[in-house]
Design a protein that fits this description.
This protein is 36% helix and 19% strand. By secondary structure, it is an alpha/beta fold. It has a single domain, classed as Rossmann fold, CATH 3.40.50. The chain is globular and about 50 Å long.
Length: 308
């Protein structure tokens, strides 16, 4: 793979995983002495409303432009439906006009107009008015001769806008009750300093990805599903992007259709985090979902079925 001519990131190979990092960027690790806090709400619509309220509150707190990272799949669909309704009016035009919107992960190689692309799903849920009114939209490009080169350009644009204000995150189950954030897989060698990566795909991720799109209401034709199943890599933001965001808003709304999330979330809550940085990094490599416990400002919204 070729690298960008504008050298701002270093590359690191961890097995078959490629990670990009900035050697001059400090990463702050926040070890909380208190238990991880989460809010149990009544239904998915309530979670969506709470997530939108977090965006509105943040906009009231911070003047100027706001950089947000969208959550793919089921977790934020209720919020997107609400935003789509409001974007059809003038009610939130002032807020939308301040937003720089980014995606957080993608399967590759894959046509950008594939129905199983997060971009197509965002367009379906958020609607034309949203994309006409926001300041910018930057997806991870998956139709390219150099995934690494395009990912570098993506990170450079993200950094040029001042970094992430609001990072909307979900929570994905993995084997042995581990979990992933974005698509950072257990054992992928991700370090705290890694901003983004290109990692090999696994059959379990492909199945999870396709099933959550179908459950979420996407119309998937045979050609799109076949192309998706032939994807070889995942583009994903890394631990440094998560830990460097100013605020994280997490949602977990689909434990009924992804019951493995229950055991994974329990492990997230019960794991004792090491006080040694090297051992802690090894813990998050084994179970990337733990990264969310190392951020100082997390708002987590879940449904009762996560504990059924």
């Amino acid at each position: 793979m070729k690298t960008s001519s504008k050298k701002t990131l270093d590359r690191r190979q961890a097995g078959n995983n490629l990670w990009l990092f900035d050697p001059h960027r400090p990463v702050t690790i926040n070890r909380k002495e208190t238990p991880f806090n989460y809010n149990v709400l009544e239904n998915e619509e309530a979670v969506g409303k709470a997530m939108f309220d977090e965006l509105s509150t943040y906009a009231d707190e911070k003047p100027g432009d706001i950089v947000i990272v969208l959550l793919g799949g089921r977790g934020a669909q209720a919020m997107y439906r609400l935003i789509s309704e409001l974007a059809a009016t003038e009610a939130i035009d002032g807020l939308l006009g301040r937003l720089h919107v980014f995606t957080q992960d993608a399967l590759a190689p894959m046509r950008m107009n594939n129905a199983l692309s997060f971009v197509r799903d965002f367009e379906r849920l958020l609607g034309d008015n949203f994309f006409k009114k926001i300041k910018s939209f930057t997806p991870m490009l998956t139709e390219t001769d150099s995934l690494e080169n395009e990912l570098i350009k993506y990170v450079e644009k993200l950094e040029s806008l001042g970094g992430i204000d609001l990072f909307f995150l979900g929570f994905g189950p993995e084997a042995e009750a581990a979990s992933h954030l974005c698509y950072i897989k257990p054992g992928s060698g991700a370090k705290f300093s890694d901003i983004a990566g290109v990692i090999p795909i696994s059959p379990s991720i492909l199945e999870h990805h396709i099933s959550k799109f179908k459950i979420g209401g996407s119309t998937v034709i045979e050609e799109d599903e076949a192309e998706c199943r032939n994807a070889t890599h995942i583009l994903t933001l890394g631990p440094a992007a998560i830990l460097g965001a100013r605020r994280i808003v997490q949602s977990i709304v689909d434990a009924s259709t992804a019951p493995a999330k229950r055991e994974s979330f329990r492990k997230l809550l019960d794991t004792d985090l090491s006080l040694d940085d090297e051992l802690l990094e090894a813990q998050t490599n084994d179970n990337p979902g733990l990264l969310i416990r190392l951020h100082p400002d997390v708002r987590s919204y879940v449904l009762p079925d996560l504990f059924a």
